[in-house]
Structures are given as C-alpha cells and as structure tokens.
Amino acid sequence: MASGEGPMLLALRSVGKVFSNGVTALSDVDLTIREGDFLSLLGPSGCGKSTALRLIAGLSTPTSGVLDWRGSIDRSNIGFVFQEPTLLPWADVFDNVWLPLRLKGVSRAKAAPAVTEMLERVHLTGFENAVPRELSGGMKMRVSIARAMVTKPRILLMDEPFAALDEITRFKLNNDLLELWQDERFTVVFVTHSVFESVFLSNRVVVMAARPGRVHAELAIDAPYPRDEAFRTSPDYAALCRQASDVLVGAINSTAGPHHDGH
Amino acid sequence: MTAIEETVLKLDPEEARRVRQERLERIGRWVLPLAIMILAIWLWDRVCVWNEIPKYILPRPGVVLQTLYDDAGLLFSSLLVTLRITFLSLLLAVIGGVGLAVLFAQSKWVEMSFFPFAIVLQVTPIVAIFPLINIYVDNQTVKLLLCAWIVAFFPILSNTTLGLNSVDRNLRDLFKLNGATRWQQLRYLRLPAAMPYFLGGLKIAGGLSLIGAVVAEFVAGAQGQSSGLASRIIEAGYRLNAPRLFAALILISLTGILIFLVLSLVSHLILRRWHESALKQER
C-alpha cells in the first residue's frame, strides 16, 4: 500500500496564486495526485494549503500554471468538506445530505436510498430528522462528510475538517474516515496542521512551507492499511511521526530565513 | 416533574437559592407588570376623585370601561375599518419589501442604485407626504393603504436585504461547487437564511402599519373622509367626549399589542427548531 500505485488523477504544474492585495499564496507548486491516494497537505498557517485545495475544487483559479486532470472532470466528481460542518441550520440531517442531489434535480424519493446508505456509512442512522442544533460537533462533521460523499465523487477534498473537535472524537472520525476510504477507494486530499493526523491517515504527506506558500518536501508513509488504534500507539507510527515532524520543522525554518521580515 | 422536585430537595444551599430565584423571576415577570398596571389605574381613579376632575377632561377608568361597553357597536365597526387598512398594508408591505429585497439581492448594482430611494421614502414624514397623495389619488382606501404601506415596508425591505446578504461564505461555496443555479441558491439558501431577519422586520412592520393606518386616517379624517378609529378620536375630541376618546385609544393600544404578540408567536413557531433567538425563548 505504498505511494505511487494508482494512475495519475491530477497534476498541478508550476501553479501559483497571487491575491489582489499582493500576497503570494502559492508559488510554483508541482504536485501529482494519483487515483486512490490519501494525500495530506501539512504545513504551518499561511503556507497556502487551503488555497491549493480551493484551486483543486475550482472555487478559485490559479494566477500561473495549470491543473491537469486526467480525463474529464466536472464539479460533481468533487466532494468538499469544510473546516466547519457548514450545514443548513434549518434543514434536518436527511435534507442536508440530500442537498447536492437535490441541486442536481434528484427528487427526495429517488435520492432516499443513496442518502440512507451514506448516513449508515457515517453511523448516523436514526438521526435523519434531527436538525444540526441538536447534534454534537462530531455528528455534525459526519453529516458534512455524508453530504460530500453522497454524489460518489472521485476526489474528496477536506480542509482541516477535524481541527475543531476534541481528541477522542477526532480519533473516532479518523478511524471511520479511513474505513470509508478503504471500502470505496476514492481519492482524498486532506489539509491539516497536525503531524499526527496526517501520518495516521495518509499514504503520502506533502509538507508545505510559508511565505510564499510552496511544497517543501514529500514523505511516503509506508505503513500498511488497515490502520487501527494499535497502529496509533505502535513504534512504527512514532518513528514516522518523528520523521514528518523533522521535515515540518525544516519547512518552518526555511520560512524563518532572510525573507522572514519581508512584509 | 416529580423527579425534578425530588432532586430540588437534595440541592446544596447555593443551587437551592438559584432555583428559588428562578422561580421568583418566573412569577415576577407576569405579576409585577400586572400589579403596577392595576396600581396605576387605581391612582388614575383616585386623582380624578381627589381633585374632582370633570369627566370631559379626565374620565374615571370605570367611566371609560362603561363607554367602551355602551359604544361598542360604533367603536368596533370603526376598529374593523382600521384593521382592514392595517392588514392590507402589512400584506402589501411584505410583498413589496420581500419583492424589492429579492430584486436587490440579484445584483449589488441594483441595490446601490435603488436603496437610497427607499430611504428617502422612509425618512420623509408621512404626514407631510399625505397632501400630495390626496391630490393624486382619488380612491379613499387606496389613499390610506399607500400611506400605511410607505410607513411599514421599509423595515421588511431593509431586514430582508440584510438577511439575503448574510449567508455563510462556505455555504455559498458549497452551492457553487454543486452547480446550483441562481434560483436554487435563492430558494434553498438565501431565502431560508433571511427568514429570521425577515421575521424581525415583520414584527416592527406590524406595529408600524397600525400607526401608518391611524396617522393616515387622522389626516384624512380631518377632512371628514374616514370612518376608522382615528376619526372617532377626532370626533370625540371636538365634542369633548373624553370617555369615548379614551376608549378608542385603549382599543388602538390593545390592537397594537395583539398584533405584536401574534407576530412574535408566528416568528417563534417558524424558528423554534433551528434559530438561536428561539432557543433562548424556550428557557
């Protein structure tokens, strides 16, 4: 289960993004995402990892460079999970998960099997009629994941989805996400600032550096799946975390160089 | 219920004090205003007696109540006339306010261009505009409706516009990602998101449409053209019939309170499941 197995899905070639206020969010990013990858973008704040995700989603366009998709991809092939659950507060769980299908003109009755199945996959069966206010933070995030997956996207983009959750809930969601990923074999690009989370989940960790945002190094996490709670406390995991942590420190130090006070 | 009371018995002094405090507040919220109201009415009555004030200047509360009963036919038929104008203008204010807000929401440019006109309509005193309306409009009902509408539509327009524009940025991205059309975005995202704002505006507009109707009747009534409550008040004023004047005033106030309560209830029922404001009311 090492990196570099699947065929290429998307390549970012010399991608840069400069905002109108003059900030260079991304500079000369080259990155190849393969079919079936669980790829984490790891880095300090300001390294442009969220910007990269928005570019991939098509919510933003690059200033320079190209995004090279293999085959045709339209937006229905992309699932997006935001940092907050971002649910419709007035709609119940079922309607929130139905939303992407509803926007494509699928009726409630026709969408019901897919919605019900997705809710089962994220362990929310029985909560169809609850509104977001009645759910815990972890459950809201599960609804958000179900909504992103209900259209069976080829690629799932996640922008620090579990950052606001407590550790116990986060571990649980990590496990469940991996389970889902192993069953369905979609591609994941996962933005995080947690070394431990990125190593636990991914087969590839791309470490980014800030000012300007760029790819600093890439790490292959050659630990076999399925990864469970035993892996979380194993020496292998600790060693990989130390390795990733060292690379991240390198990335942070590369920022604190001569151009650190440039702004 | 009994379970709660049993635990109350085992509470430590601090918690017990808090429970007692909460219970007192719950009772006080109703009893206090009522007590003060009764005290004020009693004082009003005493002042009339002590100073021997004639009833054409300040009638005693009992006399006002008696007049309300004796003149009920006249007063309530006038109230119906005023209510008709109030509700019709509120309905038009909702249609106009929401319609314009949706139009404004379609483009920043439209909003920038036309919002100032709405403000001009709002800030110009209706009493000053009425003579103009009187010249241009013949139909009596249309005249009054137009007046009340001008007063009432602005809070709905302004609140709904704010609501339509305060949609969570990520939700907007989500709709974009899923290829939502402009109509879908309005129907499934912006209108529901604007609902709490709209209902807030509706509560204000409800009171304003009553005020607008009464003011319009006042101006029209001065010319002997109206049969609403306001014209009853003017009439009573000319005839020094203070008891009837007071009775009409009380009717208008009660109507205003009733409108507010009904709209508050409607708002609560619509928002109770998901909105923070309704959540706090439950406690």
UniProtKB/TrEMBL annotation, chain B:
Transmembrane segments: 27-44, 85-105, 117-137, 143-167, 188-216, 245-271
Keyword Ribosomal protein: no
Entries under PROSITE patterns matching the protein: ABC_TM1
Classification via Gene3D superfamilies: MetI-like
Top-level taxon in the UniProt lineage: Bacteria
Keyword Transport tagged: yes
Membrane topology, record value: Multi-pass membrane protein
GO cellular component entries: plasma membrane
GO biological process terms, semicolon-separated: transmembrane transport
Boundaries of every ABC transmembrane type-1 domain copy: 79-267
Protein localization: Cell membrane
Alphabetized GO MF terms: ATP binding
Keywords: ATP-binding, Cell membrane, Membrane, Nucleotide-binding, Transmembrane, Transmembrane helix, Transport
InterPro entries: MetI-like, MetI-like_sf
PANTHER family named in the record: ABC TRANSPORTER PERMEASE PROTEIN (PTHR30151:SF41), ALKANE SULFONATE ABC TRANSPORTER-RELATED, MEMBRANE SUBUNIT (PTHR30151)
Family: Belongs to the binding-protein-dependent transport system permease family.
Protein name per the record: ATP-binding protein of ABC transporter
Gene source species: Mesorhizobium amorphae CCNWGS0123
